[in-house]
Each structure stands twice: as structure tokens, then as C-alpha cells.
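Q: May I have one protein plus its fold?
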Amino acid sequence: MKPTSNRVFLICAALVALAGLDARAGELMNLSTRGSVEGRGSVGTGENVLIGGIIITGSGTKHILLEGLGASLSKAGVSSAATLQDPLLGLYNRNGDLLQSNDDWRYGPELDIEASGLAPSDDYEPVIIADVAPGNYTAIVSGYAHSRGIAVVEVFDLDGASSARLAELSTRGSVQLGDGALIGGFII
């Protein structure tokens, strides 16, 4: 998805080189960005979505889990009224083709999601589990039925034994203050 207006956009990228590291020892396990898109700090629809660019390097496939969190952010101190109550999540390849989508995580591979230990606390939050080859991917978080609010896009590495590596998550969102700030995070 390309911006088509004169809004100010921020590209927040976390890049980690992990050559020669023992599997799981010092390896990148998670990348996430809490963002808000478009006026009043919210993720919406159309151009007003949270976009995460994901890069997988190496060879073979990488088993990943993607989340689009919204309502559960209230447990982390974000005002419940400000969160995206019903996010949608889509995973796209470099050509823009939709590979998978999810609305509510319990309508996905529920047992696999629960087994990962990463199931969201809110049933309306989407999760995608995918095996992806090295390359560039896009995760898009939007609001169901034109809903708006603060959301998080996350990607987790579920397979440290793979020679493929989770290398980057870059995020497109508008620059704002307060609750509308774009915040990146990672777990090693």
C-alpha cells in the first residue's frame, strides 16, 4: 500500500544482523510496533492503516506468528476508549498478493496459537501463523467496519532452528504526540 497524500510518514526500522549466533542465544525473537495512523491517534481503513514490512533472510522457511493487537492494549495502560477494538490483519507478499488474513484469532489455527503461548487476551484480535520463505512481506492492521484506534503489529519467530532469520520489521504510520506516538519494540 503506497501513501497517496501529503501526510507525514515515519518509517521506523529495526535491523539486526545475527550471523554466527547459536539458535535462540541472542537471536531476535520478536519485533513489534505500536502505532496510530491518521488523525487523533488511530488505525482505521484505506490509507489509515498500520503497515509492518517484514524481511526474512537466510534459506529455508521461517515459521512466524503475526498479531494485530488492539483492545488488550488497555492492560498495558492505553486508554480502552483509544484502542482499536476489532482489528483485522492481512499478510501480503512482495507483489501485494494476500497470503492470509484473520479477523478474530479463535477463527484461525486456534490450537496452534494457544500452543505458542502467544494467544491474545481479547478474542477479537487477529493472529496469523505462516511458514514463509526468505523475502519481503507486509502485514497490514486495519479496523473492522471502519473502526479506529491504537493498535500493535507484531511478528514472532516460532522456529529458532531454521536457517532463515527474522531480520526486520519496518512500520509506516503518521507522526503524532502522546498516545498517538509510533513506538518500536523487540525481544532478543
Remarks:
- The two ends are 29 Å apart (CA to CA).
- Residues 1-26 have pLDDT under 50 and may be disordered.
- The longest strand covers residues 165-174.
- Helices lie at 110-116.
